[in-house]
């Protein structure tokens, strides 16, 4: 099993020499900032088309797969916000800077 963080170096052996399956577990930590929200829009659009996101090798991905994940399924699985289908919440106890970056993020999402 390999555990890694999005800001660390990661590699997987090219040859699996183990006796059982191996696993990779990835926990992304994504701060709400303009650069990440702009990427989120690209990722959302790629998902809707069924193609790989911009940081993954190209190709047609799952665009022709029958039964691939849908926007409706993501929303039901509480994945809507993480994939750019829902606005970020602005809460009354946020600091001014938090409110500003959240408002900017929602503008970029263009929902």
Summarize the structure.
Helix content is about 30%, strand content about 5%.
**Count of alpha and pi helical runs:** 3
Q: What global shape is seen? A: globular
Computed CA radius of gyration, to the nearest angstrom: 17 Å
Proportion in helices: 25-40%
Rounded to the nearest angstrom, the distance between the terminal CA atoms is 38 Å
Order of helices and strands: EEHHH
Return residue spans where pLDDT drops below 50 for at least 5 consecutive residues.
none
Strand order of the largest sheet: 1-2
Which sheet architecture does the biggest sheet show? Answer: 2 strands, parallel
Number of strands: 2
Overall average pLDDT: 84
- Protein structure class: mainly alpha
Pfam family, one: Gig2-like
InterPro entries: Gig2-like, IPNS-like_sf
What does this structure look like?
- The chain has one domain (30-109).
- Helix content is 32%, strand content 7%.
- The model has no long low-confidence stretch (mean pLDDT 84).
- Helix 1 (34-49) runs parallel beside helix 3.
- The protein has helices at residues 34-49, 71-76, 96-109, and strands spanning 2-5, 24-27.
- The protein is mostly helical and 111 residues long.
- The chain is globular.
- The protein is built from three helices and two strands; from the N terminus they run E-E-H-H-H.
């Amino acid at each position: 099993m390999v555990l890694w963080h999005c800001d660390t170096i990661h590699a997987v052996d090219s040859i699996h020499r183990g006796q059982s399956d191996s696993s990779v577990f990835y926990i992304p930590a994504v701060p709400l900032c303009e650069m990440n929200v702009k990427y989120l829009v690209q990722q959302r659009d790629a998902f809707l088309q069924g193609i790989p996101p911009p940081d993954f090798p190209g190709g047609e991905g799952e665009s022709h797969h029958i039964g691939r994940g849908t926007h409706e399924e993501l929303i039901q699985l509480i994945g809507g916000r993480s994939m750019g289908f829902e606005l970020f919440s602005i809460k009354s106890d946020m600091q001014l800077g938090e409110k500003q970056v959240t408002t900017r993020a929602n503008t970029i999402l263009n929902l």
